[in-house]
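Human: We require from you a standard protein entry with sequence in single-letter code and fold as tokens, and nothing else.

Assistant:
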Amino acid sequence: MKIAVVILNWNGAKLLEQFLPSIVAFSDEANVYVADNASTDLSIQVIKEQFPSVKIIQNDGNYGFAKGYNLALKNVEEEFYALVNSDIEVTQNWLTPVIELFEKEKEIGIIQPKILDFKNKEKFEYAGAAGGFIDKYGYPFCRGRIFETVEKDNQQYDNETEIFWASGACFFIRKEVFRKLNGFDEDFFAHQEEIDLCWRAFNLNYKIKYTYKSTVYHVGGATLKEENPKKTFLNFRNSLMMLIKNLPKNKLISVLIARMILDGIAGFQFIFKGKFNHFFAILKAHYSFYSLISKMLKKRSVNQKPNYYHTKSIVFNYFVKNGKVFENKT
């Protein structure tokens, strides 16, 4: 088999029962693995009894997304990896276009399929949609989803095109690229580690591509709900860590200062909405980030490409200019 489908799981027995059937049914080209982060529910029993063809990789602790995958993939030797959330439903022929694209363009390191909403299959899904980008200040957005505005899929993004980052919800990567980059940064634990990995791949001149020919459906928030302050903490902290590691040297100070201001504004918005736990999560994220600055600086590579962002400020475009949908560069 050329491709390994690897699903990271932690106490997701019900999700495995619901979503593994589509993966097993439509993945004849692949070996299917579940990498289990020391679940305490019936996950392992469910796999053994209901999905005997699925291979089990057992981690000895709950290491989150980043370290969980890093440990699991050490002994997975297929040429391509498909890293798939446990709340993903796949469709017939979802792997073939991806394998063909990898084989056709050797400079491609990472690929993302079209990600639609499992609960409303006519709409894109928040986590990835039709491929991701960032603005100058490191705020992520997608074709098909900018902040809370999610578009209906009217085939407006039915093309194969270069993107800046691919969603960790369904993330295809060459084994050789994953290992050359030393996998995900384990200091992230979870959230935005895939953007950091894509940025590091971009700095090494690998292409990241989106294909509409492969479609999956994502529940979203099945592991950590949007309203959970821990998610706010991880997103804000990890975004700052990512900037320290990957920004071009001549933009490092100015962008970080601007981010401090923008994050402060976001914090006060949470106060006005009565979401005090999220305000304190941002404060906690910044204090955690400050303690890790020295460590992140040591992770900077030699190459930082200057043309990393799609637009200067997605915050300004969205909230001031009312730019609710993705705009191609002119």
Q: What stands out?
A: The mean pLDDT is 95. Residues 276-297 form the longest helix (22 residues). The CA atoms of residues 3 and 159 lie 23 Å apart.
